[in-house]
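User: Methionine--tRNA ligase, mitochondrial. Structure?
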Amino acid sequence: MKVQQAASALGLDPQTFCSTVSLQFRTIFDALDISYTDFVRTTEPRHIEAVRRFWMTLEEQGYIYKGTYEGWYCTSDEAFLSEGQTAEHTDFEGNKIRVSLESGHQVHWVSEENYMFRLSSLRPALLNWLQTEPVHPAPFLKLVHHWLEEELPDLSVSRQRSRLSWGIPVPSDSSHVIYVWLDALVNYLTAAGYPNPQLAPWGPSTHLLGKDILRFHAIYWPAFLIAAGLPPPQKLLVHSHWTSEGTKMSKSLKNVVDPSDCIRRYTTDGLRYYLLRHGAPERDCDFTHRTARMLLNSELADALGGLLNRCTAPAINPMQHFPKFQYENFPVASRDQVHDLLGALQELPVEVDQWIKKFQVHKALECIDACVRRSNAFFQSQAPWKLQRGVEKEAALRDSVIYLTLEALRLYATLLHPAVPGLATVVLDRLGVPHKMRTLKKNTFLAATRGEICYFQAQTLGPDKGLLFPRLEKSEAF
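Assistant: Predicted structure:
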């Protein structure tokens, strides 16, 4: 209904409208360097066949029956709601309306004969699935448990075609079309090759979703899968929303942040970094251009970019290479600082891995930034620009400081690559790192600090391509 109404408002047929929206998503994915193995359109023949077969399986298993549905329905959310999920509200014109407590969107009472899914019978199976703690972060798991404290009503899974023409017809009754959320959720199966198990065996590990569609993914979807004899997802990673200057984004308020405009302001990697660094999955986060400018200048331009510039500058590193490292070159008074920095660098990949596994990407990036700043403090305290190349001990100390800083940068860039692939590549190119040595797997860092042979010692740096991330001025970010 939502698609049909939106298309009608623009004077378009639903297929043309959906094609336009789909292209917008593909375009922004490409602009943000987001890759995908498949992009399922629910109008594709393979998806229609998957939905039909899935429906017939549910029907054969006795989970679908014809009945009368009466209750509240939210067209904007495409969701059925119980009485307790709605509340009376006064709109801007003073009219009394009923709205969804979750989204605030208006709901309407509907009463019609539909096909129903026996959701009520699957509550024990859903509670059993929740014992595996599949929903992350924890606050969202608690919310799903709260939803399941009450009995689940059966779910309407069709619409009369006379009222809604946009949809896949029910296989055994063309006078009805299949409910959009049953249709849409099956696209996970479509991408896996369903109903042909030889294409890609179904074994879902992780689903990524917004908190506004948690109910569909944490109750309806696992229930559908269990009813069809398929395993439910092992993990649901749920993220919250972005607000704009403290207010929910809304077209009517004209405060929607345009990602294309942000790419122009901050670059692709700049926007990626800000969203990943400033966003926390368990709570809504506020998007402001002032915060973006300050964070990107501080962490990418000054801290990371500054560190790269300092240890590769010809005045500091005239040979433009990875020099030799010897721990003994450091004066006794500096060795505690060196030891602490090495300890932090050795622990960093473990810390980052732990935070990523917890879906706390912002914490992983925070750890990296903290180490970058520690490296800057180390470089500043050692002041290699004050050490004379003509004095043997000072030259050896200078070399050790530069080596340690370059190796730290190699580690930072490798860890940052998933978040900011463009910037990480620039750093690794500048350091002259071969492509086969740009992953954590089967790679070693800081080998010379452990007295081991290091591939990079005496290796030449790559060409200087200028500033890593030029500082953003106010006029560029506002």
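The two ends are 38 Å apart (CA to CA). The chain has two domains: 62-183+200-239, 261-477.
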